[in-house]
Design brief:
The structure is a single chain. By secondary structure, the protein is an alpha/beta fold. The protein is 33% helix and 23% strand. The protein contains 10 helices and 9 strands. The strands form 2 sheets. The protein has a 7-stranded mixed beta sheet. Helix 8 packs antiparallel against helix 10. The radius of gyration is 18 Å and the shape is globular.
């Protein structure tokens, strides 16, 4: 297993509880959703979706797809009060708990616990055992991310951006040259140590073109940019937009990876 210390956050996990609510519209419009095939994997894993929990739904990019499973009970753990209010307005059927998943006191019995691009803001030593306990026997934990920068996958725009981030504090999911969600050994080991079985790992690849405006909006939605001073944030976003214009003629090819881990609570005791 990889050394977790090598993945230590420069930004504290607590920052994720409030950093995204300061521009809900900007976040929602800039962030892409997730592949349909990812939800098909989840659908194939379970026979019942009577009860679903979502950890850190943010603006609801994954919530809408999860709601299509038509659960009788759908609980969302969202610590940001602004985002929690947004979710209550957007999804009438959603029971929004405005609290951190690890601290919230909610009854279990979930068929599915899902987390889209948010699990890195939690301490896995606490969050994984709690998720296991809140699942029904045979229930499934699904955690996934969108990865925007990864060396060696044929994404010259991402590799050109990386030097611009060299002296910026990164979130818990990232180091300078990788995203921790792609460390299969790390996640498989953590899931199995927490008592999960049947661990699966899949990665979906999508390719798209970013304009200078697209790239600016996307990076403006990231925690590592939102927590900069106004002056430094503007300088970084200007540099990223200029990169698209000058090196990629205003149309930067971008690779988006979506890794997902699926794991089950054992049916038998233990």
């Amino acid at each position: 297993m990889s050394d977790p210390a090598s993945l230590a956050a420069r930004l504290p996990r607590a920052a994720g509880r409030t950093v995204f609510g300061n521009d809900v519209a900007g976040y929602h419009s800039a962030r892409p959703g997730y592949p349909a095939a990812l939800y098909q994997l989840i659908a194939a894993r379970l026979a019942s979706f009577e009860s679903i929990a979502e950890i850190g739904p943010g603006t609801g990019l994954a919530t809408e797809a999860l709601a299509a499973f038509n659960p009788h009970r759908f609980v969302a753990f969202e610590p940001d009060p602004v985002l929690a209010a947004h979710l209550r307005t957007r999804f009438a059927e959603l029971d929004v708990v405005n609290d951190d998943f690890c601290a919230a006191e909610v009854g279990g019995g979930f068929d599915l616990i899902a987390s889209a691009s948010s699990f890195h803001w939690l301490d896995p030593a606490t969050a994984l055992p709690k998720a296991r306990d809140l699942l029904k026997p045979g229930g499934c934990l699904a955690i996934w991310w969108n990865v925007y920068r990864q060396k060696g996958i044929g994404d010259p725009f991402a590799e050109a951006v990386m030097p611009l981030l060299a002296d910026i504090d990164l979130p818990p999911s990232e180091a300078t040259e990788r995203h921790y969600s792609l460390d299969t050994e790390l996640h498989r080991g953590r899931l199995e140590a927490a008592g999960f079985t049947g661990v699966e790992h899949h990665v979906f690849r999508r390719e798209r073109i970013l304009s200078a405006e697209d790239a600016r909006a996307l990076y403006a939605s990231f925690s590592l940019v939102r927590l900069l001073t106004n002056e430094r944030r503007k300088a970084l976003l200007d540099a990223i937009a200029a990169l698209v214009t000058e090196q990629f003629a205003g149309a930067a090819p971008s690779v988006l990876l979506s890794p997902i881990y699926l794991a089950s609570r054992p049916v038998t005791a233990g």
